[in-house]
Q: What sequence folds into this?
């Protein structure tokens, strides 16, 4: 059995690739290790995806994208991909549960939250340290929490956390935020959000549960301790591309390099979404990448038949 298209990853890029490939009548499977939806499932609102009603929860949109791909014929398989091999006419996608022979591959594995890398972080993960506000915010009803980072994720999730927490303190390593202007405006206007600028967390402390953080001001060198119940870390993401290392060309951070048709350094292997080296990582650009990758896979197959 040789599939036409094997898609790895069930976020917006993979699901859109599935929709386009199966709608083009290509025999398509999508391999996903968790529930489909990807990182979007860890956020609540999607303000910047065109045509979405304000009160539409982001995970619901992902459910609809999944259903749409499935309705056109994409088969979703639960497995974790660990390697890839190229045999010219066909490729083999190696999973923990099985091997999948295919004419083309679309890598759409996205990215995952980066760790802060300070003492206490791993020990207190799930015990007050979190990387997902949507998943964990309601544990912090009327409590004080810290958000680390100054990008879109940090500020968006800080605003979301104010629905639950008593106070949200954003600790950022510089004195200006990286997040989009509209998010900055909302955060500065929110009375529940405080900022600690030019500062980094050096340690997360707690006996079985988060109790405080040690903060160092980068400008003055002053070290202080702040009591808190939770630490939400949003300091960027890393691509999920380890299984393809040495197989396709990547940049120094592990983002996969493609041409404008999403084709990687290996013919017939494409990459789409956040895992790709690109300028703008958003749901809309991930979905667009998925559409292009599927159309390019269709063309690749047609030219060889
Ligand atoms: P990001 O844009 O890379 O921001 C990471 C933030 O963490 C930056 O403010 C950075 O500081 C800080 N940081 C990095 N390493 C740190 C460290 N070791 N200690 C302390 N602070 C550290 O990452 P993101 O916010 O997770 O977003 C990832 C991608 O998804 C971005 O492309 C983003 O635009 C996109 N995204 C978009 C939306 C949206 O459009 N609604 C929502 C979420 C995410 P510096 O600023 O000093 O570098």
A:
């Amino acid at each position: 059995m040789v599939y036409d298209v094997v898609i790895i990853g069930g976020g917006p890029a993979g699901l859109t690739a599935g929709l386009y490939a199966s709608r083009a009548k290509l025999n398509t499977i999508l391999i996903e290790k968790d529930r489909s939806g990807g990182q979007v499932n860890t956020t609540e609102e999607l303000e910047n995806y065109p045509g979405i009603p304000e009160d539409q929860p982001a995970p619901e949109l992902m459910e609809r994208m999944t259903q749409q791909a499935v309705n056109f014929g994409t088969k979703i398989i639960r497995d974790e991909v660990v390697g890839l091999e190229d045999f010219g006419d066909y490729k083999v996608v190696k999973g923990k549960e099985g091997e999948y022979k295919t004419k083309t591959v679309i890598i759409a594995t996205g990215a995952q939250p980066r760790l802060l890398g300070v003492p206490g972080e791993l020990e207190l993960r799930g015990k007050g340290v979190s990387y997902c506000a949507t998943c964990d915010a309601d544990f912090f009803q009327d409590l004080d929490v810290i958000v680390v980072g100054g990008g879109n994720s940090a500020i968006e999730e800080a605003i979301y956390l104010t629905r639950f927490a008593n106070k949200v303190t954003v600790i950022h390593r510089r004195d200006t935020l990286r997040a989009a202007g509209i998010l900055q405006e909302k955060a500065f206007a929110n009375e529940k959000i405080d900022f600690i600028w030019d500062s980094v967390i050096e340690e997360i402390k707690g006996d079985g549960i988060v109790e405080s953080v040690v903060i160092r001001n980068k400008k003055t060198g002053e070290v202080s301790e702040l009591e808190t119940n939770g630490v939400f870390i949003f300091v960027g993401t890393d691509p999920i591309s380890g299984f393809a290392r040495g197989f396709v060309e990547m940049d120094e951070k592990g983002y996969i390099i493609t041409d404008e048709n999403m084709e990687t350094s290996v013919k017939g292997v494409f990459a789409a979404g956040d895992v790709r080296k690109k300028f703008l990582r958003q749901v809309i650009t991930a979905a667009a990448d998925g559409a292009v990758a599927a159309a390019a896979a269709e063309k690749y197959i047609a030219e060889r038949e």
In short: Residues 48, 116, 148-154, 156, 173-174, 178, 200, 234-237, 281-282 surround NAP (CB under 6 Å). The CA atoms of residues 144 and 167 lie 5 Å apart. The chain has two domains: 2-112+237-302, 115-233. The two ends are 17 Å apart (CA to CA).
